[in-house]
Amino acid sequence: MKRVIWWLIVGTKGGVNRARIIRALRERPFNANQLTELLGLDYKTVRHHLKVLQDNKIITSVGDRYGTVYFLSSYMEE
């Protein structure tokens, strides 16, 4: 799993933004719109990075559509 995290952050073009999202989610859960405002990124950019992080089991979510709230996965909280 550490290699996946390294690749997602260091080995890819969007790694800096993914690291910023992970850092924000360490503080508390956010929805995509809140992350957009907090990080000053485009909404579609945030949604893309959230999908990549979720597909790789770095984050999890609760809810659906606009109300979806994102959390770090249990692995990332350790």
What fold name goes in the CATH topology slot?
Answer: Arc Repressor Mutant, subunit A
Distance between the termini: 12 Å
As for the number of domains, it is 1
Please state the average pLDDT score.
91
CATH architecture: Orthogonal Bundle
The CATH homologous superfamily is called: Winged helix-like DNA-binding domain superfamily/Winged helix DNA-binding domain
Description:
Strands 1-3-2 form a three-stranded antiparallel beta sheet. Helix 3 (32-39) packs across helix 4 (43-55). It is α+β, with helices and mostly antiparallel strands and 78 residues long. The two termini are 12 Å apart. It has a single domain (2-77), classed as Arc Repressor Mutant, subunit A (Orthogonal Bundle), CATH 1.10.10.10. Helices cover 59% and strands 13% of the residues.
Structural topology:
Elements: H1 2-9, H2 15-27, E1 30-31, H3 32-39, H4 43-55, E2 59-62, E3 69-72, H5 74-77
Question: What can be said about this structure in brief?
Answer:
The protein has helices spanning 2-9, 15-27, 32-39, 43-55, 74-77; strands at residues 30-31, 59-62, 69-72.
Core attributes:
Arc Repressor Mutant, subunit A; alpha+beta; three-stranded antiparallel sheet; about 80 residues
